[in-house]
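Page 42, continued from yesterday. The earlier attempt failed because a stray header line got pasted into the input along with the sequence. Redoing it now with the clean sequence only.
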Amino acid sequence: MPTLRHAVALFLPGGLVVAAALVVLRPGVVPGVVEVYVHVWALLVLLVGVFLAWYYNRGRIVFALLLLTGVDLALRWLGPGETFRGDAGRVVVAAVAVLLPLNLAAYAVLAERGPLTGGSLRRLIPILAQVVGVGWTDWTAIPQTGVVAFAAAALYLVARCARHQDPTEAGFLWALVAAFVALHGISRGWSPTAFLAAGGWVLIGALLETGHRTRYYDAPTELPGVRALNDTLSQLGGRYVLALVRVDHFKRLRASFGREVGDQIVRMVATQLRRVAGGGMSFRYGGDGFVVLFAGASAEDAISHLDAARRAITAYCFVLRSPGRPRKKPATPVPAAGPRVVITVTVSIGTAEREDETMRPRHVIRTARGALRDATAAGGNQVTA
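This time it went through. C-alpha cells are written below.
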C-alpha cells in the first residue's frame, strides 16, 4: 500500500518541475527576451541529458529524450499557425497524441541495456518507423483517441510507480504529463518546445536521482549504504548511539539452505530494522551486517528500541519451499510433499554511545564492534552495550 512518503517521492522532483513550467512558461508570463532562448534551452536539455545518460549507461533515457526532441521538431515544422489547420497538421497532432504516450510508457518498462549496445540501438527502429508512418499515412485520428492513449499510459505508469518506487519510471510518468501539456497548450498559443524541454529536464532529474540511489543505497534491501552512513556520521554533532547488527550463524544458514534463502533473511532483517522506533536510522553495512543510528538519544532508550527489533526478528519464521512446490500458487491447494521446514533467525547487536564531541565516528564504530563480539560470544540473540 503506497504511503505518504511514497506519494511525496512520486511527486518530487518531476511533478514540481512540471508544475513550475505550468506557472512560468505560459505566454505573457515569460518575458519576450527569454522566449527567444527557449529553443536553446531545449537543445541544452537534449545535450546534457544524452551525455548524462551515456555516463550512467541508461539507454532508455536517451531514447525518451530523442522522442521528445523529435516531437518538438515535428510541431515546429508545422508552425504555430498551421498546427490545427489543414490535413497535415491534424494528422501529425493526432498521430503524436496517440504514439507519444505509448512510446514513453513502453520505454519506461523496457529492460535497461545501455545506450550503445546492438539490442539497445534496435529500439530506435520503432521510432523511425512511426516517423515515416506519420509523414506518409493519409488518415485522420479522432482527438479523443489521443486522450485515451495518454490516460492509459499514465494509469499504467502510476500503477508501476506505486509498486516499485523507481525514480526512472516516475520520471517517465512526469515526462508524459509534460508532453500532454505541450500538445494541449498548442491551441492556446503555448510553446510546445518549452514543455517538451521540461519533460526532458524531468528525465534528467530522474537520471541523477537514480545515480544517487545507486551510489548511496543498497538495492537488495533498499537501505542506505556505507557511503550514506559515513556522510550522516560526518554531519552529526553531539550525542548519538550507534548499533552494529549481525545475523547469528549467517554463513552456516546460507551454506545449509542456499544463497537465495540467505538473501531473503537479509531482506527480512532489513525490513524489521527499518521499522525500529525511537528515530533510529538503519543502514546496510555489508554482507549480513547493519547499522542503526540514534541521533541525540541515550544508550538506555536506544537499547530498548533495539531489543524490540531483535524480538520481532526472532518471532519471524521462514517456511522453506519444498522441492516439488510450484513457484506460483495453484488454483487448487496441493498438500506439501515433504516435511515443513521452519527457520528461526536471530541477531546479535552491539551498541556504543558517543557522549564526547571529540570522539571520532571510527572510534564509536570500533566500540560498537567490540560490544557486538561480546554479544556473539555470549551466545547471540541479545543486545550488548
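Notes: The CA atoms of residues 136 and 254 lie 61 Å apart.
Reminder to self: strip header lines before submitting.
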